[in-house]
Amino acid sequence: MARALARLDHLSGGRAAWNIVTSFQEAEARNFGLTEQLSREGRYERADEFLEVVTKLWNSWENGALVRDRQTPLFADSARVHRIDHSGKWFNVRGPLNVSRPPQGRPVFIQAGASDRGRDFAARWAEIIFVTPGLIDVAVEFRTDLRARAVRFGRDPDTIKVLPGIVPVIANTEKQAKALQHELQALSYPESGLSTLSDHLGVDLSRFPQDQVLPENLDVPGVEGHYREVAELTRRSGVSLAELGQRYGAGRTTSGFTGTPGAVADRMQEWFEAGACDGFMLQVPYLPGGLEELVHGLVVKRHPELPPLRHEELPPPSGL
């Protein structure tokens, strides 16, 4: 992994990132030589050591170790390349890495864990944290807690950025936006979204009444974090399990980002100024129109009273 990501960072000129989310399904464990999945604590314990090892491997090349002098000739200064001699519970690696130090030093780390142990993992390692908090006060609590944990790990909290995932549904008027949201949601079957959500939460949601909110607490080993976050969202907003399935199937769990470009921009500003986030992970509800409305309505701040820019009006793409 260290070698592959170092190569990618070199090939992209220092633009690589790594989503450091642990696997949790039984099928994943069986694909990697385990008879059953590790516990949550075990997964994060192993992930911590995994990150330690790959980071040591990237650091096994000092800055300036890569010489590439054709006249000498000398490829690398061996005095600046070191073994790591890592010996731990999960991994034993001598090193050094056989790829030179990445341009960034290491790729950007992205993480998306909501449990207590997942928050510690994010606070220790990640630069970007992806979340789906649903409500602004939940997002404020999450970010505040994460920043405090980062300090306990000896990090500057300003070096981590919390980015909630939102799916803006934008139209020229509030009425049009709500109608579009209703149409998009109607295209999503509750059972489809709940099936995916069950897989992500590790809980069979079919046993709960679809016309009610999720129970706050479950007597199921290992269930925490994201489930509690989702259950709190349904309880506080009154969203039934069926509606949650529709939202999840349509890719929308965070509410309040439907309306005119100005209204959505105001909502984003409200979240930012309240300390709920450091930015946003923008997702598109449909293509290509949803992307056009997002770019030309929200980003370019196009006047909402003007007709939306259609696909054929877009300028030709520039060369990459």
- How many strands? 11
Broad structural category:
alpha/beta
The residue ranges in which pLDDT falls below 50 over 5 or more consecutive positions are: 311-320
Distance between the termini: 27 Å
Mean pLDDT: 86
| Helical stretch tally | 11
Could you spell the SSE succession in H and E letters?
HEHHEEEEEHEHEEHHHHEHEH
3D shape: globular
C-alpha Rg (nearest Å) = 23 Å
Largest sheet: 5 strands, parallel
* Assembly annotation: single chain
Strand content of the residues, in percent?
Answer: 5-15%
Description:
- With 320 residues, the protein is α/β, with parallel strands linked by helices.
- It contains 11 helices and 11 strands.
- It has helices spanning 2-11, 26-31, 40-59, 116-125, 136-152, 174-186, 190-201, 226-237, 241-249, 261-273, 289-299, and strands spanning 17-19, 66-69, 74-76, 86-87, 92-93, 108-111, 128-131, 161-166, 169-170, 258-259, 281-282.
- The strands form 4 sheets. It has a 5-stranded parallel sheet with strand order 1-6-7-8-11, with helices on one face. Strands 2-3 form a two-stranded antiparallel ribbon. The chain has a two-stranded antiparallel sheet with strand order 4-5.
- Strand 2 and strand 3 (74-76) form a beta hairpin.
- Helix 3 packs parallel to helix 4 and helix 4 crosses helix 5 (136-152).
- The longest helix is centred in the N-terminal third of the chain and has 20 residues, at 40-59.
- It is globular, with a radius of gyration of 23 Å.
- It starts with a helix and ends in a 21-residue tail after the last helix.
